[in-house]
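Researcher: Please predict.
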Amino acid sequence: MTTVVEVRDLAVSYVKGSCVVENVSFDLQRGEVAYLLGPNGGGKTTILKVLIGSAKPFRGSVKLFGTDLREFREWWRIGYVPQDATLTLGRMNVSVNELLGAVSFGRSRSLDRAEVLKLVGLQDTSALLKKPLFSLSGGQLQRVIVAAALINSPELLLLDEPTAYVDPSGSSKLMDLVWSLNTDLGMTILMVTHDVSMIGHRDARILCVNRDRFYAGLMQDLMSSEELCKIYGFHVYSVGHAWKSTE
């Protein structure tokens, strides 16, 4: 298998003398889906920021597609949906077409704007492209944001709590989309989430972080061990329900 992400002993510091996250080591293989869990302030978003080059490691090493992070330049290979993107973009008087144009690398592999909207399940694309972002429904906006992350045909998709501001029906449809991107296109996906019910099966790959504590393994092993309690700092009970496809 091809290793897409390789992280070894990662530590990140924003303030001298203090690390916001450390002792992080994991791999992501091509075509894999993994979930990044942990309490607020535990370092989940920081790990994604390292993978998109907006935060620098204080210690450790990171490789993307076999290339050291410090030398990596093929950023079109990574799609990213940031946390709170719907809140930020939902206020903007920018058209869907302008957003997709702004994030396109202009490469020959970039998708047609109408086609990428259809890929995420949006129809009547000619009218939608002209609409300002603030006029979209919450579900439409979230899918447009995912389309923006897909416009350059990435091989790795990073999602930071993509269902945070979407209603239950919209969340389920978004997860259907995430799984179709993986199963139909073979896309490697790393998703930050607080909602364990979004994890589709107990043998899913889990990364769980809380500053200097880190776990990498299967969901079923995490829930049946004391690791979850150690990471969250208090006893955690699991509830027996899971996300199911709407299809």
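Model: The beta strands are 3-12, 21-29, 33-37, 59-64, 67-68, 78-81, 156-160, 188-192, 205-210, 213-218.
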